Every structure is written in C-alpha cells, then in structure tokens.
Amino acid sequence: MSAAARPRRRAAVARDQHESAFESILAGLVERIPGARAAALVDRQGETVDYSGGLDPFAMRLAAAHWRIVLDEVNGQPSFRPVRWLALRAGRVSYLVHELPEEYALIVVLARAAGFSGWRRAVAACAHALANEAGWSWRAAPWFPVQVTADERRRPCSLRPAGPDTGPRPVEILGTIAGGLARRERGWRVRFDTGVEATLVREPGGVWYSDEPLDSPHPEPPAPRKKTR
Prior knowledge:
- This protein is an alpha+beta fold.
- 20% of the residues lie in helices and 30% in strands.
- It has helices at residues 21-32, 57-75, 120-134; strands spanning 36-42, 48-53, 85-89, 93-99, 105-111, 144-150, 156-161, 169-176, 186-192, 197-202, 208-210.
- A hairpin with a 3-residue loop joins strand 3 and strand 4 (93-99).
- The N and C termini lie far apart (57 Å).
C-alpha cells in the first residue's frame, strides 16, 4: 500500500518565459503544500526569476513584487527583529513570504481556506534545492521529500526520492518518534540500506520527509582504539 501523496494536477497556464531549472523545484513545492496554488522565486528588486502553478503569470509576478517590498519594509522597521517569513490571509487568497539567501525570497499563493499548515518542511526542502541549484550557502537544517511505501499499519517499509523513479529502497524501523511533532503527524527513526540513520515524518496530507538524503554516504566505522599498556 502506498502512503505517498498523489501529485495534484496543475492547471494548464500559458507561460510568458522559458522554464529554468528552478521551475521544477517550485512545482514540487506547490504540490507538497496543502492548498498552494502557485509559487515564485523573486530577487531583491522584486523581479520574478521563475514561477510555477496555476495562476496567471502577470498576477503571480505582481504579487511576488508586492510581497517582496512588504518583507523589506517590515525588516526596515526598528521596532521589529529580523523577520524571516510572513503568513498573511487576504480576502480571496493567502500568502506565504519566506526569505532566502542572497536577498532572494520565496512567495507562495494559497487558497484562502488552505490554512498555514504543512509548509515548514516543504519550504525547507525547496530552499535547500534552490540553494544547491543557485550555488547559495544555506545553513538551515534541510528536509528531503521522499515517496514511501507503507505496510498495513501505515509504517514505512521502503522509500525512494521524490521525482524520477529510481526504484524502491528498503528501510529498517528503529523506533517511533514520541515528541516534537505536530498534530496528526507521525515519525519514525529508520536506517537506510546504506547504513545511514534518519528521521522519517509523515504529514497529515500524506507527504513524507526525511532529515537525511537517501544518497548519504555510508557512515565510516569507528577507528580502532589503540592498545595501551
């Protein structure tokens, strides 16, 4: 039984620019955040680098430029501490604005009733992938989206990276995560077939994340202790 969430089908919208390598990263973000309609990567000047989703490109660019300015204005207020992200609910839609390295920002447009749950790991995974593609330095702890096959008790038994099918990889459950999770989330401590240990989390929407990449190198065995007389 597969417990991986089925990708949502995006509405066909005519693009007004050539797709870059960032588009597929942004598309994955839109699919993983409940209620997300579109996402854009915007630079310091408010120019949209690339976008993905079912919104009109001009409307997406306009929203991205506007909320980039709002983020700057908030951070320019001496009464505020540095703000890394904003979540705002408007009349018909909601917005998530997240700061990125090199003065870039991520803008996500959500349906008004979508709420603001299930975005933190999705944004962390997206930011990590964007940083790798752009060559930024990204120090925040990453999460990696994975596709999981679960047993009849909905426990993970095999997984593979989200994206192109590379075939299932076995996973050994070491224990369950007892704390630190949101309502309706489940977590397990597992071991990959490489020997690497990781935390797997299943969010309420059926999306899974690992705090370690599947291609992590096999851990080095501990060095033998020197004998002392």
